[in-house]
Amino acid sequence: MTGAADTDLPGGWEAAAAEYVLGLLAEDEVSAFERRLAQDRDLEQDVAAWQEYFATLTAPIEDVAAPPQVLRRLEAQLFGRARRSLVGQIMPYLLGAVTAGAIAWTVNVSGLLGFDDDPDLWADLETPSRGLVLLAHYAPSSQTFMVRRDAGDYPEGRSLEIWMIPEAGDTPVSIGLVAQDGLTEIPVSDEIAAQLPGAGIAISDEPEGGSPTGQATGPVISLGQMAPRDE
Amino acid sequence: MSTSHIEIEDLISRIAMGDRTAFRTLYGRTSAKLFGVCLRVLDDRALAEEALQEAYAKIWTRAGQYRVNGYSPMTWLITLARNTAVDRRRARDAGGRRRTSPIDAADLIADPAPGAAQQAEARGEARALHLCMSELPPERAEMVRRAYLDGATYAELADATGTKLNTVRTWLRRSLMQLRECLSR
Asked: What's the pTM?
């Protein structure tokens, strides 16, 4: 037996249970403790109780909205790049030759399949000086934010970053980067999803990989507002 | 048992079956809390983002190991996130970036405890722990807090109190037993 339940230390296994939850045991002590834990129900209950009590120390910690790229990376890590929503599957076929009618068709297909009643949202994002035409589309059914590039070139060695401005004067929140090729598809968190209706969407020109500071550093090249479309 | 308690357990059990929608719903519900915890432990946004991602990856793969034990499912999530963040903090600090500010009993007494109103709203376990921690000498309670919220090791606690490691450990284990005794009253 190693130090965890040493007789010269007060508390025996019971104190070791608290040390285990606090992460204070040395590696060899952890192994010895876990061997014991596997066959001692009282000790298991002690560990569960300590976890419950100590977790309450986090109660005063303020919630902080996680930046959207975390969910994006997480889903890419767990589910791979193949994750495709229904709308995501349809959208590429519409690329380049899209009409208002075709967009309405997409919306209707989503509707027919019985997804949420929340309307899809759209914003035109145009930068005449660069000949850049982007269309932002948010699909509540898959909680996915999409951007399609209809015209113009992606700036070389730079990244286009998408920002949500919930209300005028609010600090912009990064949604992610416009993909260099193809359709941009970004799963968004509940917090962002809830704020998207009517929100402003800005595109800024950033160093490759996106703003290093978490706030837009480059020029804002276009601005639009997310709103439903009838047709 | 609160509605959110049941809902979160339901989400975890659906995640155990590989339900991605449930996973995203759980993320939407709980990530702000867990990100706050990771930030608190790591005090660094980039590392906290990595820890958060790793914590949810663990939630996805370990959801099947979650056992309903009458305690809050948030505890399971918080414990996973906290432990992940602590591991990252220790890996970082092993590179020499250790910050240990001294534990000074006089400062701790002046340090205002969470407000009475907040305590009144707190759940039973939070209230009990707060009460029992306040029965410990302030510097011992601070050691427990630092161990949990900063992931401080015995070596760091020894530094922070200017005491030998074995002495700190003896003190802290006595205090933990005192805490256990108080909590089981």
From this structure: 0.62
